[in-house]
């Protein structure tokens, strides 16, 4: 058996390298299928509507595409205005039902594509800034493949497990001195070991890149690879002139070079230290310390280590800035790596590779081992011990959600009550509006947020009550490194029996690096939604967030987020612990959160309602804006007052309303 075949057999069979490779390939495929989320999930949820517009403008920016987008914008705006007017006229008795249906049907066909148009318009506003090198295209495939700089920890682990035993296995079994006595045990064997190890790593690195390419090709499609790289917003400020497919080839080449660099570093350290554990800690430390520890994200691309090449998308990015809220100045968060800098880093890396190769051959030669063995042992006896402990901040935790009856109204989201307390905004001092709770028995008031709120914490005026628990949401900012501000969004549970607080949900809204293997940086779309949340409610499995035009749910166990309802605009909305009630085109819709089914409640036409004790109190537009009540259990509708109502509110079993004729407020017991 030749030396090469023997070394391959030793790497893949005796040292169980083949087992590690098969396990990694399985885990890699599993993580791609389970953890991959589209960068823009809205496109996938509105796929047909989005593509109906994309096919009209796909490709480079043109006056024809711009005219089409602007005309479509005007058409949708006119359709919304006309539909609203016809709805008002119908319920006010100005037009008949037949005329209403005939007029609104074509308008609904126009508006059903509205969300798809909004997605195309977002691309349009991005492309028109630099139309020469930004094209209209379906981005999710290329974004998933290129738009991240996450270090693949699984791949690093495989390289370490595959390469470290090449020499450490011999040292642990006391074979190193014996091999140096045989004819082919010095130079030839060292060259053979190095070549086989590097060849294996290079082929596996290519295989991993090909696997990712095939996955994104099959799941999303990777069409129009000849479009400019700047068509992806991740590379918006890049000055590199290349296409999407060329960028993939550059990134793949960088990963292969970085993997070879890492493999050679492992061989060098293992020859110097002769200890498997020391080799593992040292090499992972050389990667992880700059990856997690450098203050500027682009710094890792300016040092000659394998790290920059393993996450080589950064070499294609441009200058990026973020406004510092503390001094209102733009602060650099990423500096573009110029071709000159890249050439210097690559040149130093090649020099270090040559030196390591030379040292490996010298350290494994007979002359060096016999004459200077003791000196070499003293020289490399003090290794660099590095161990980085990384903890995963959980986005969702279990909660002590109460199974008692729940009543939530969006219109009264800043106040709620339970059996013992009433929670509301105290607006006595308009310069210092506070959330307070009032003891129903004694009438004593206290500030609800007992801990002093720092300047870096912003509590939203949105509450949710169920049983003895009260929930509120807040944003926390943290001054990191020098200027950078890091934002966290949290849902906090307060047990009113003992006033203990517990965070039941937490989300990092400005995550630069994630600790999940193969996890992607949070997209701008997801982050923007968390900044636009108006209110929330929850059940025992999900937290529901109310945005400007939609409701999204997040599973409290898995952290999976999805859109459950699209409502535009959101006016009246209620939740009873299982069912969501909302208004859509003046009709009240019931959405069952368990079965995920919708039902229209018959004979109710309104824009405003409140849910109280399984009863809907609403302004009936079919009867001249009189106030009615609908029993959700007995399915009975009855009129409460025979006067036109402009608005109303409910407090302590009393309904207060403003008469539409004289604009005076009245009240009556329910």
TrEMBL record:
<feature type="transmembrane region" description="Helical">
    <location>
        <begin position="190"/>
        <end position="211"/>
    </location>
</feature>
<feature type="transmembrane region" description="Helical">
    <location>
        <begin position="342"/>
        <end position="363"/>
    </location>
</feature>
<feature type="transmembrane region" description="Helical">
    <location>
        <begin position="247"/>
        <end position="269"/>
    </location>
</feature>
<keyword id="KW-0472">Membrane</keyword>
<keyword id="KW-1133">Transmembrane helix</keyword>
<keyword id="KW-0812">Transmembrane</keyword>
<protein>
    <submittedName>
        <fullName>DUF5050 domain-containing protein</fullName>
    </submittedName>
</protein>
<feature type="transmembrane region" description="Helical">
    <location>
        <begin position="153"/>
        <end position="169"/>
    </location>
</feature>
<feature type="transmembrane region" description="Helical">
    <location>
        <begin position="375"/>
        <end position="395"/>
    </location>
</feature>
<feature type="transmembrane region" description="Helical">
    <location>
        <begin position="276"/>
        <end position="294"/>
    </location>
</feature>
């Amino acid at each position: 058996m030749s030396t090469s075949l023997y070394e391959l057999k030793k790497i893949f069979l005796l040292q169980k390298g083949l087992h590690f490779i098969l396990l990694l390939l399985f885990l890699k495929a599993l993580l791609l299928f389970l953890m991959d989320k589209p960068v823009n999930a809205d496109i996938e949820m509105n796929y047909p509507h989005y593509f109906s517009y994309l096919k009209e403008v796909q490709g480079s920016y043109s006056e024809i595409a711009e005219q089409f987008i602007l005309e479509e914008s005007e058409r949708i705006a006119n359709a919304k205005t006309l539909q609203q007017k016809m709805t008002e006229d119908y319920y006010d008795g100005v037009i008949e039902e037949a005329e209403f249906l005939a007029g609104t049907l074509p308008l609904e066909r126009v508006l059903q594509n509205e969300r798809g148009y909004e997605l195309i318009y977002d691309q349009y506003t991005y492309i028109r800034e630099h139309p020469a090198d930004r094209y209209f295209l379906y981005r999710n495939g290329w974004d998933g493949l290129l738009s991240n700089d996450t270090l693949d920890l699984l791949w690093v682990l495989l390289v370490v497990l595959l390469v470290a035993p090449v020499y450490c296995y011999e040292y642990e079994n006391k074979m190193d001195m014996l091999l140096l006595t045989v004819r082919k045990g010095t130079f030839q064997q060292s060259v053979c070991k190095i070549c086989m190890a590097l060849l294996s790593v290079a082929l596996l690195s290519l295989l991993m890149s090909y696997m990712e390419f095939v996955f994104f090709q099959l799941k999303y499609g990777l069409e129009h690879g000849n479009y400019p790289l700047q068509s992806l917003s991740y590379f918006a400020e890049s000055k590199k002139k290349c296409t999407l497919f060329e960028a993939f080839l550059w990134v793949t080449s960088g990963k292969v070079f970085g993997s070879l660099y890492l493999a050679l570093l492992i061989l060098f350290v293992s020859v110097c230290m002769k200890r498997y554990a020391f080799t593992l800690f040292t090499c992972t430390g050389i990667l992880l310390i700059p990856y997690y520890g450098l203050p500027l994200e682009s710094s890792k691309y300016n040092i000659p280590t394998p790290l920059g090449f393993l996450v080589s998308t950064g070499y294609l990015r441009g200058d990026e800035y973020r406004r510092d809220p503390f001094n209102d100045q733009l602060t650099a968060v990423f500096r573009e790596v110029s071709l000159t800098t890249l050439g210097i880093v690559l040149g130093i890396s090649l020099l270090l590779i040559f030196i390591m190769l030379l040292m490996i051959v010298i350290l494994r030669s007979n002359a060096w081992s016999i004459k200077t063995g003791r000196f070499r042992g003293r020289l490399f006896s003090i290794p660099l011990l590095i161990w980085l402990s990384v903890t995963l901040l959980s986005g969702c935790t279990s909660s002590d959600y109460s199974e008692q009856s729940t009543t939530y109204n969006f219109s009264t989201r800043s106040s709620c009550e339970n059996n013992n307390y009433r929670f509301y905004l105290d607006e006595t001092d308009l310069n210092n509006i506070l959330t307070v709770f009032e003891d129903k028995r004694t009438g004593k008031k206290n500030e609800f947020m007992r801990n002093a709120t720092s300047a870096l914490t912003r509590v939203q005026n949105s509450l949710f009550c169920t049983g003895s628990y009260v929930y509120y949401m807040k944003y926390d900012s943290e001054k990191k490194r020098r200027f950078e501000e890091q934002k966290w969004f949290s849902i906090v549970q307060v047990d009113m029996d003992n006033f203990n607080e517990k965070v039941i949900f937490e989300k990092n809204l400005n995550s630069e690096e994630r600790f999940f293997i193969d996890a992607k940086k949070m997209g701008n779309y997801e982050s923007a939604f968390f900044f636009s949340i108006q209110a929330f409610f929850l059940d025992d499995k999900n937290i529901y967030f109310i945005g400007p035009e939609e409701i999204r749910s997040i599973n409290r166990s898995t952290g999976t987020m999805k859109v459950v309802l699209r409502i535009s605009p959101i006016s009246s909305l209620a939740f009873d612990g299982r069912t969501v009630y909302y208004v859509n085109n003046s009709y009240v819709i019931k959405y069952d959160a368990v079965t995920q089914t919708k039902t229209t409640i018959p004979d109710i036409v309104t824009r405003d309602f409140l849910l109280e004790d399984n009863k809907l109190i609403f302004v009936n537009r079919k009867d001249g804006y009189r106030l009615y009540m609908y029993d959700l259990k007995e399915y009975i509708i009855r009129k409460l007052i025979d006067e036109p109502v402009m608005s109303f509110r409910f407090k302590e079993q009393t309904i207060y309303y403003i008469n539409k004729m004289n604009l005076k407020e009245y009240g009556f017991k329910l």
